[in-house]
Amino acid sequence: MNFIKPDETAVFALGGLGEVGKNMYCVMHNDEIIITDAGTIFPEGELMGIDYVIPDYTFLKQNESKIKGLFITHGHEDHIGGIPFLLQMVDIPNIYAPNQAVGLIRRKLEDRGIKYNNLHVYTEKDIYKYKYLSIEFFRTTHSIPDSHGMCIHTPNGNIVTTGDFKFDLTPIGPMANLHKIAKIGEEGVALLMSDSTNALSEGMSKSESKVDEALEELFNKHNSRIIIATFASNIYRLKHIVDTCKRHNRKICVFGRSMVNNLEISTEGGYIKHKDIFITQEEASKYPSDKICLLCTGSQGEPLAALSRIANGTFRQIKLRPDDVVVFSSSAIPGNALSISRTINKLYLKGVTVYTNTSLSDIHTSGHGNQDELKLMIRLAKPKYFMPFHGEYRMLKTHADLAIECGVPKENTFILGNGDVLILKDGVIHQGGKIQAGDIYVDGNRIGDVSNAVMKDRKVMANDGIVVVIANIDTKNHKLLSNPNIITRGFVLVNDNIELLKKLERISKDAINNTIKTGVNYSEVKSEIINNVSSYINNQTGRKPIILPVIMDIKKDVTVG
Asked: Are residues 251 and 372 in the same domain?
């Protein structure tokens, strides 16, 4: 970044701007870089076969000698999910995270077979100082314990990043440290970077204690088996459920790997008590309906999650009963409404009672603050400049407008994209250049090996299928040894399209014979097959499947009639 002078401070995001997820933010001054969070985002439907999307780490790889540490705000996947991939590509000298997040990170690294010995627990009281930069923390309220915001002190002014937060005055865990936030604000904040997830929602978010009351009422009302689906990452919700089951003398059987892992880590860390309340799937059948609660994943209608399989009747261990009560203690993530609706309809068809989060049923609340809470953060921090983060563009824009309402000059608000750089000098900020930033696809154990061309081919195969042309050629004598074999997947049903496939066979045969008369050039042969076959298919069907020629050299003196 030659557009940054040695006495200037740079602020930029590698992920988290214009999207909800993939959070990764950096502050750089001279030869020091502090990174906050390293998340993933789950792929959208058109990214077929992709498991995760992570930020482009190219800039960090090029400047890894400057990295002082990675600091984690809390333990959710969109803030820690990228750590295993980051460690495989970039030398990170130290990772600092709150206690709950450390447990989740360790489990994540173990699952990937990654050994890393420089993972440290920080508390709100800790301060880490380097030559130019230093960082301190303040407690926030979120849906997971040990959530923090951070204040990064630079020679050119203080930068505050909120992490994910809400202001819950009756929380299940500790309250946000309003006094420390206000103190930081009094000391002077050059730039506030604030969570925009719920910037479109007016007023105040519901308190988590309201959910506790709603769950208590639901348990009092029903003596039948209760099945609860919620986010495995919502540790405070899981704590609600465990405590409520304890009061009602119900055992809990857990379904879903992520749910099991998070509960294990939370009980080990002391965030969730009553370890004796959990039973195995085999034990669950021995308890009467009013003494059991099933806790499972699948609140978003995921096809392979436990609740979807229960609703489909394909879950071997659990069969629905007419008096069952199913509770969706969650809200719909954008894009999941249809799959959730399908699951709910299937449950109704089974005759069970279903509760979802509505105005009449407070069985879920967000871990992110609504507009009034976002305004309160701005008022407490009193920033000179404001940059919304952690949100889609409309969320960022609305949040910037809220900052203007709270007295931040319009020209002092920045709605940026990943890779855009803010330059801070003597408390004054302007937008500078841009660094490399984008999406990297993770496919199984492969990181970044799946190109846009591969993704394009996958989309074509999903829409139009694939046609494989297999041909045996005697290259020595320039002969096709047998008629080409046509194999299709996702294109047409063979038994209903015999004439079409025979025509493709003849076209392929002619294409091969025309190109091997004087010699065999594999590239020319394949190109001729692709051009002729694809042209015919498109004319006849209007479809454009992938044409894959497979040419094998077999040395036999056989003539095709």
From this structure: no
